[in-house]
Write a structure and sequence with these properties.
Radius of gyration: 19 Å
Helix content: 25-40%
CATH topology of the largest domain: Nucleotidyltransferase, domain 5
Number of strands: 10
Structural class: alpha/beta
Largest sheet: 5 strands, mixed
Shape: globular
Number of domains: 2
CATH class of the largest domain: Alpha Beta
Distance between the termini: 22 Å
Length: about 240
């Protein structure tokens, strides 16, 4: 496995080694010492290409450090939007969404896709049969909704995702659980109905939880973003070798 893929998200970091589109073991880190964790992955082996996708701009000192840990470094953040434009994607979308879109295009060639990422935020993106990006929406993720209810309403408790939410709540806690979960289900079903012929792809931490509650057929690909980053790394190597 010669390439190292790193996705720095809003609440956690995910990483994996890859050989072209084949992913190795996936690592997850949730803490403040992001650079130390990345460097721990390169102690035994230096990657040929390191791809770092980040929701926030990386510091120049960190970029310089990472460049010393690999043969080639791809930085994908708000300060480096050229790769988005080269793939026909708008500059405003984040690289995790872009990577998911590129992976969906690769896996389901010739099919329109509705891509739903269940993370800190809930993002929904649409592509046509020819791969053209048709836009997308962003709203609060599942746990973020629970936190928002607690934070902005003094009387409501902080709850987590229930294993088996009731269709309608008969207590305060059950009403919150049912309201959040049912609200997301109705929201996603509405998006899927916009393009009924599309392949529906769920990714992110809560993808399996919601996929089994949907009426439609769903493809769950938990590492869709990492697959997209692997595709970018592979394309980068091919361009250099030409």
């Amino acid at each position: 496995m010669s390439n190292l893929l790193v996705e720095i998200g809003n609440t956690a970091l995910k990483a994996a080694w890859s050989d072209r589109m084949t992913l190795g073991k996936t690592f997850r880190y949730q803490g403040e010492k992001v650079m130390d964790f990345i460097l721990s992955l390169t102690q035994r082996e230096k990657p040929s290409v390191m791809v770092v996708s980040s929701v926030y701009p990386l510091q120049e000192a960190d970029i310089a450090t990472l460049q010393g840990e690999c043969a080639r470094l791809m930085v994908l953040d708000a300060e480096h939007k050229e790769i988005l434009l080269s793939h026909g994607l708008p500059a405003h979308i984040s690289y995790d969404r872009a990577a998911a879109i590129l992976a969906a295009r690769y896996l389901f060639r010739g099919r329109g896709c509705t891509i739903v990422d269940f993370g800190t935020t809930l993002s929904v993106d649409f592509t046509r049969e020819d791969g053209l990006y048709e836009g997308g929406n962003i709203s609060l993720g599942c746990r973020t909704r629970f936190k928002a209810l607690h934070r902005y309403s003094r009387a409501l408790p902080l709850l987590d995702i229930p294993e088996n939410p009731a269709p309608v709540g008969l207590s305060e806690s059950a009403s919150i659980e049912s309201g959040v979960i049912s609200g997301i289900i109705f929201e996603i079903e509405g998006y899927l109905a916009l393009h009924p012929g599309n392949i529906a792809i769920f990714t992110g931490g809560d993808a399996n939880y919601f996929a089994k509650r949907m009426k439609s057929s769903i493809f769950v690909i938990c590492n869709l973003v990492l697959m997209g980053l692997a595709l970018m790394a592979d394309e980068y190597v091919l361009k250099i070798e030409k």
